[in-house]
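User: what does the whole thing look like in 3D?
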Amino acid sequence: MPLKIACGQMEVIPGRPDLNTRKMLQMIEQARAEQADVILFPEMAIPGYLIGDRWEQPAYLDDCVHYGEEVVATSRGITVVFGNVAVEKRRFNHDGHPRKYNAAFVAQDGRLLPGMAGKDFVMKAALPNYREFDDPRYFTAAPQECGVRHLKLAKSVLPVPVTIRGQEYRFGIMLCEDGWTEHYPFHIPRLLVENGAQILCNISCSPFTLGKNGKRHRVFGSQAAELKVPVVYCNNIGVQNNGKDVFTCDGQSCVYGPNGRIQSAAPMYSEYLLTFTWDEATDRIRAASYKDEIVTTEDDEAEVTYKALRFGLDRFLKQAGINRMVLGISGGIDSAVAAALYADVLGPRHVLLINMPSQYNSALTKSMAQQLAENIGANYTVVPITESITHTVNQLYSPIHSYESNRDFKLALDGLMYQNIQARDRGSRLLAGFAAAYRGGFSCNANKAELSVGYGTFYGDIAGVIAPLGDLWKHQVYALGHYLNETVYHKEAIPRAIFEIQPSAELCKEQTVGNGGDPLRYEYHDYLLRAFVENWDKASPVEILEHYMNHDLDSFLGCAPGTTDRVFHSNADFCADLERWYGLFTGLAVAKRIQAPPVLALSRRAYGYDYREAQLPAYLPRRYGELKAELLKQERLF
Amino acid sequence: MPLKIACGQMEVIPGRPDLNTRKMLQMIEQARAEQADVILFPEMAIPGYLIGDRWEQPAYLDDCVHYGEEVVATSRGITVVFGNVAVEKRRFNHDGHPRKYNAAFVAQDGRLLPGMAGKDFVMKAALPNYREFDDPRYFTAAPQECGVRHLKLAKSVLPVPVTIRGQEYRFGIMLCEDGWTEHYPFHIPRLLVENGAQILCNISCSPFTLGKNGKRHRVFGSQAAELKVPVVYCNNIGVQNNGKDVFTCDGQSCVYGPNGRIQSAAPMYSEYLLTFTWDEATDRIRAASYKDEIVTTEDDEAEVTYKALRFGLDRFLKQAGINRMVLGISGGIDSAVAAALYADVLGPRHVLLINMPSQYNSALTKSMAQQLAENIGANYTVVPITESITHTVNQLYSPIHSYESNRDFKLALDGLMYQNIQARDRGSRLLAGFAAAYRGGFSCNANKAELSVGYGTFYGDIAGVIAPLGDLWKHQVYALGHYLNETVYHKEAIPRAIFEIQPSAELCKEQTVGNGGDPLRYEYHDYLLRAFVENWDKASPVEILEHYMNHDLDSFLGCAPGTTDRVFHSNADFCADLERWYGLFTGLAVAKRIQAPPVLALSRRAYGYDYREAQLPAYLPRRYGELKAELLKQERLF
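Assistant: Here's the predicted 3D structure for the full assembly of 1276 residues, as structure tokens:
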């Protein structure tokens, strides 16, 4: 008789072991009602995964252990596999904290089954330590534990034998990264199967990343096909953050048959009990619920961006106790897209849009701002900043007394200062004030290109409770805007003109949507900056110049063919531009990012804790100077 | 003939391998001139150590390798031991990045001597992964490399044989944490000596921490005594940061004789070539330069706090290109101490103090602010905020149109909003504006108690280029103030009344220095909050309540005996207070810290990257509820 297996795609709330346990007990009941033999829960289902140094608090660990025991106690008549922290109080991690493992427990009839290396849990072997992951900061890995005890890892990675209705099944249990060990000196799925596993279960806490699902399907699918066993992937949903970055866990739990193909899948961003049967004799998977539409190998970028942002914003704001948001609305694309998104998440009646014109704002953008508010049905007001700016400027000219020379002096203002005064007046004086009075938060609408080079003002437009577009390049913001109009609002909620005008800050008379826009040429700089931050091997001006001189920069960057040629008129221009933006990217922009609001992470590398930065002095690699000297001997490369 | 060894306590500039190499070449020349046989340089002397994900940029690694070769090339007639990154481009770390080691190279006569495991460098075995350290994120550890190649670590940790004037000496080279392996399954100093090392050299990049020098003297001294070899500790000076935290490296390189005692030491925070002779036959160390005053086992807290802050601020501001600072000056202790410190670092003529009164500021604090400016000889001005506040409040009452209901409405303000408006007006409108016009930065004067509970305003007083007092508890701020007056200014630069008034924000008529001060009772809360963040095993309300019920809370927290008894009048009061501040500490304050300026790190655990935090929902451990129920059955515990 085939086994019935349930995959408990639950919402995990990091920091709330009590609520997570309650949810698990409910799902166990539900699985029992559906006659499931086995239920799986995600990695760190009880404590949550991204909880920062809360891992160092013994009282929190005690609670996680306690709630783990509660789950074990409810396993009468069902086998429960769940992720939790395992604690050994009398042993130590290298740093002297009590020893902890990122562990999977298998419980049946109120007791734990034997795990690994003589313990009653399976320990994670591959502890990720890149991007946002910090596993080795907190946990001891299986290879470390085996090493200390002179055990061979290959002989310790054993499946858990589970007896159900008198028959023994060997479950290969692993945790998240254990399934992604391309560059590790061990291959957990293979070791498990070599040691007799008949089915592989990967319990994960896997944050959504654009493009990652397709990769997972390839990696896990080929694991199943190569090792000729089914692979079950059990992920959670929810938001987890590490301060600077807010990640969504997208669920999408699924089961891959021994043919490598997905047999059944749970939806994205919804709690779901995915059940299927597995006939060990024939290795056939039968899905009680088959979600055909879920099983795509590559995602539509705008669609999944929208889904991730919508879910992430909703949960993040709820957790922060925020149900109303204030946005400065300039008539430009970023604030318009953000406004449409918040109105979708919170309902337009809980969104307050504020247009804050100075003498530099055009009639066109002001009217677009109002039009947008009307289109989406939000709250709207216009609050000019001219009077306040005049007052501030007058105050900045106050006489200052020097107690050294016993004389008075005055300061002088330049244009850039004047622009930043406007931005701060809007952000810190008005938006922050309105947000408090509206009993909500306010939004930072900076996009990733702006954050990359610090094109934004400290405590001005770089301020707010969260930056929903902070991990989107400008071209992705436009694409999201089109998606919102077409698929969410089914109308031109964001007026067409907003897509068509030239992006401009409108902070001085030279900056206009008509002829003086942003200094960034997004069709090129989006891609240039992306190479600096998102390439796995981070690009520097050296590689950029090499590809430019090799006539294949557009393809290296992934921008439209011919872009470089169109944007630059001389080699000297090219170099000056490259040095300017790289200098900002590694310079003042770092200081701004350190104090920037949290970013909703979507890409392969988001600013914040995912991309870790020090404030470093300006530096160009040696080779750059050599290449540049060579290049500038030529008049024009192309 | 004894060997002459030089310890190159250089200033390392992270991110500038070119400048660091130039400095090393100069010191090599100097050592040669002093007839040294061997010169040591610190860990990661070429690249710097805290450089964030710059480690992922191949062009940067190429440069570090190149400059390493330059150093090797200059080693004619001298043996040079230096820290650098070692890169193996054709192999990978677990994450797929090129394999890197935190390595020590030993060069002699233009070539590298054999290191470890068949390589031409010694690799760090103990990679710290706590506090601010992220070594395993970037580097492969010796035990990992040995494991993959089936080498025994104990047989691979070999001293480097160095032949000088025909005699072979076996140098045991290790890197920083290798000397601190209490909780690791291996003991590098012992292995080195067991394998024949005659002298141990620990090259480090060791950030200053209050209390750490005493500990190092005990740990390294007993290593030397136990293993009966001299131990040389070579540290750098300089500032290194990881964005949220700025650390100082304090130097204090020294040599411990086989008796465990310090034989010679370099000064704190100065570049220095520490030279001494070592007679291998007698194991006698003779110091060419003996700095008696340096060799203290325990530091005077206010003195080293001052030294660390002075050096750290100086270097951090220089690197940021800032040579003038603006401070809001309230007449309270925090801004007064900060002002005295900046005036000392930058010179008073480069400091602009601004008093920004509203109707709530007392004549006393206003006069103290002016008096302070006069005492230290700074620049001073008074800029009232009343007019701006009135204007802002009027604007916040602007009619708002609801496009859903097609009606207008207005918002309402409460007292707390009104207070925050004042704080933002001062910080983001005036200080930021003045800082730009003054062509400098402005300071965040928040102390650690305020940052702990978020007692401060986003974009108001929690804003600025750096928070020099952000890792000092309120009582440490007072102590620093007294130190500045007594030892630096030799007069009452900070007027006595500033030490005597009750701390108060003066943001409403209830908050006065006379009778309505801060809600924090620093004599208790400083210590309570410290236990939450600085205790190695983080305290939670459970331990606090346990100790309270056990009548030993004061001693657990380290506050003055009798404090708890004096501050609280009932058990219910105690619990309410504990829940209030723990709730803020784990709640809104986290959101504020995420966007707070960088902190100059001094303590065992500074906010930022040293203490990593997620925004988590409110949660009290289970046991707390049980204890509280038990406690509240009693009328009054004491």
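In plain terms: Residues 415-437 of chain A form the longest helix (23 residues). The longest strand of chain A covers residues 79-92.
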